[in-house]
Amino acid sequence: MSPCICLQVRIEQTRALPRQLNPNLGDPHEKYREFQAPDLTLDRLHLRVDWQTLRRLPLSGAIIFNFKALFTPVADFRHEPYIPSLALKVIKNGKENLMKYKNTWHTEHVAIPALEEFQKEQIEEGMIEKDWEVQTLDQVSQLYCDTENQAC
Questions:
Q1: Which residue in 62, 101, 111, 127 has a CA-CA distance of 20 to 30 Å to 76?
Q2: From the CB of residue 132, how many other CB atoms can be counted at a distance below 10 Å?
Q3: Domain that holds residue 101
């Protein structure tokens, strides 16, 4: 089964479960999500990606849920073509209820200006096309294959 990918912009690399999943544990950093800290810096922001899989064990038939949290510093997106543009689209145009669940508001005052700067730099340096319509990487790959007459 292919993994489900869940994205969150986080301060530091906290791994605690959100209160919605376990009200007894909660996230010790949850209080920081209630305000936008003026001293928050880009080097503290990470994109959390959860790779989630379900597996059926062959002998017992039991189903196992597994996830692995991967953290990437947002600053690393500066040199990753298309990624700042994609992240901006998600942060700015994501469904309101989903973005509230993902708890990005407390980081947006730092993440959005940085991602906008990275996007501008990538356009100026020719890493991405100025008139590129933001779309998923699968769509970009397919467009590239179609224009280059390559099998994908």
A1: 101
A2: 14
A3: 4-148
pTM: 0.68
Q: Sheet harboring 45-56: ordered strands across?
A: 4-11, 45-56, 63-73
**Residues 42-86 pLDDT 10s:** 988 888 888 888 999 999 999 999 888 888 899 999 999 999 999
The token duo for 9 is: 């912009």
Mind listing the pLDDT tens digit for each residue in 92-119?
A: 988 888 888 888 888 899 999 999 999 9
Please name which of 138, 45, 34, 16 lies closest in space to residue 86, comparing C-alpha atoms.
138
Number of domains in the chain: 1
Q: Is 149 exposed, middle or buried (0-12, 13-18, 19+ CB in 10 A)?
A: exposed
